[in-house]
């Protein structure tokens, strides 16, 4: 059996949900071994956290510079091969760029950067490297999302006519209505989060999901965003109209002030022959809608599913698979790419998807600020 790929993690310490998600996902298929990293800006805190999760402190570093210098000084077979970036948004770009320049593979949380210009610079750095680069649009790892993608590619829906994606949360309500809290959270600070909160955080998931499952690219968008308070500098709600071509259109409805909602991410795609609907809070059900026919429910693990879907299914039918499994499938795809094994291009989102996401975020804000006008997404 091949040796495990050595993985370091930046950020994700303490009680970070994203940290737990990545650590569990990385170990899911016995492909990766977390050997160190920089979990916290405070070295002592970082070392204490490493002890807590059972990692030796000899490869816990003060900062990224220290990690790169120490790892590159080790024999090739011992050094870290891939680094996961789980830090606040403003650190994604400088960290990813430095890692690529030093020939590390990179797994980066979204959004890829804080600006589209940074994303394009990062792309040039990537092109000059030999590295694998994945962006964790986590939901693309769900088996029934992958089944949706394959069914659309096979023409089950016929020509796509309408796309409707909703992503509703309510978590920011306790913050946004408190003047002191909204002024002091990094999520609403453009210097740390970028120019968008809601679109940058969850709207970009919706945008990536649409292009992932449909196989089409959005050409133009019109955005109407909501900031709720004059002193709030970042959107926390928005509706975005989409054009793929003259006769194929869609909408993204996204909110972090949808009171009572938890993580209501719903994807509906309608073609001339049929429609498909998937809900993140019930991820093991893919609904197939056809005129004059009863609604059919497809579930993971059955032989009727595609090879891509079945590859992302670990359990027999009837056993729920969730967000950890979805992220685990992305890590599995990255492992195959690093090992130069055959893999499906839909196994993990790439730097191209991250760049498209940054373009979408900036264009959405531009559309809103210019009076809710149609703007073009770069090819």
From TrEMBL:
Q: Which InterPro entries match?
A: Gfo/Idh/MocA-like_OxRdtase_N, Gfo/Idh/MocA_oxidoreduct, GFO_IDH_MocA-like_dom, NAD(P)-bd_dom_sf
Record domain Gfo/Idh/MocA-like oxidoreductase N-terminal: where: 28-137
Annotated TM spans:
none
Q: Which SUPFAM superfamilies match?
A: Glyceraldehyde-3-phosphate dehydrogenase-like, C-terminal domain (SSF55347), NAD(P)-binding Rossmann-fold domains (SSF51735)
An example of a GO molecular function for this protein is: nucleotide binding
Pfam families named in the record: GFO_IDH_MocA, GFO_IDH_MocA_C3
Q: Which residues form the GFO/IDH/MocA-like oxidoreductase domain?
A: 145-276
Question: What highest taxon heads this organism's lineage?
Answer: Bacteria
Please name the PANTHER family in this protein's record: CONSERVED EXPRESSED OXIDOREDUCTASE (EUROFUNG), OXIDOREDUCTASE
Designated name of the protein = Gfo/Idh/MocA family oxidoreductase
Organism (species): Antarcticibacterium flavum
């Amino acid at each position: 059996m091949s040796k495990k790929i050595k993985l370091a993690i930046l950020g994700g310490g303490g009680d970070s949900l994203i940290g737990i998600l990545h650590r569990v996902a990385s170990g899911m298929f016995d492909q990766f071994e977390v050997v160190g990293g920089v979990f916290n800006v405070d070295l002592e805190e970082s070392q204490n956290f490493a002890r807590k999760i059972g990692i030796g402190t000899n490869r816990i570093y003060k900062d990224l510079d220290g990690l790169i210098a120490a790892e590159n000084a080790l024999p090739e077979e011992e050094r870290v091969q891939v680094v996961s970036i789980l830090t606040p948004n403003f650190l994604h770009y400088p960290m990813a760029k430095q890692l690529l320049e030093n020939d590390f593979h990179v797994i980066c949380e979204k959004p890829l950067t804080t600006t589209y210009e940074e994303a394009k610079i990062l792309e040039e750095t990537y092109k000059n490297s030999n590295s694998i680069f994945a962006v964790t649009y986590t939901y693309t790892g769900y088996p029934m999302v992958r089944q949706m993608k394959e069914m659309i590619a096979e023409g089950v829906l016929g020509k796509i006519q309408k796309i409707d994606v909703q992503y509703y949360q309510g978590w920011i309500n306790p913050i946004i209505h408190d003047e002191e809290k909204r002024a002091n959270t990094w999520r609403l600070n453009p210097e740390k989060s970028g120019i968008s909160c809601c679109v940058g955080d969850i709207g970009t998931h919706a945008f990536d999901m649409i292009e992932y499952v449909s196989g089409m690219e959005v050409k133009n968008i019109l955005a109407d965003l909501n900031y709720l308070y004059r002193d709030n500098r970042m959107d926390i709600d928005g509706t975005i109209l989409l054009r793929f071509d003259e006769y194929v259109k869609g909408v993204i409805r996204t909110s972090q002030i949808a009171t009572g909602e938890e993580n209501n991410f719903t994807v509906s795609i309608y073609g001339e022959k049929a429609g498909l609907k998937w809900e993140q809070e019930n991820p093991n059900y893919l609904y197939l809608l056809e005129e004059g026919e009863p609604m059919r429910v497809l579930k993971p693990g059955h032989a009727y599913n595609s090879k891509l879907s079945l590859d992302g299914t670990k359990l027999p039918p009837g056993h729920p698979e969730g967000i950890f499994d979805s992220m685990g499938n992305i890590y599995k795809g990255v492992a195959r790419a690093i090992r130069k094994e055959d893999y499906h291009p839909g196994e993990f989102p790439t730097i191209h998807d991250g760049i498209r996401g940054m373009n979408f975020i900036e264009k959405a804000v531009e559309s809103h600020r210019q009076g809710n006008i149609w703007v073009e997404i770069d090819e």
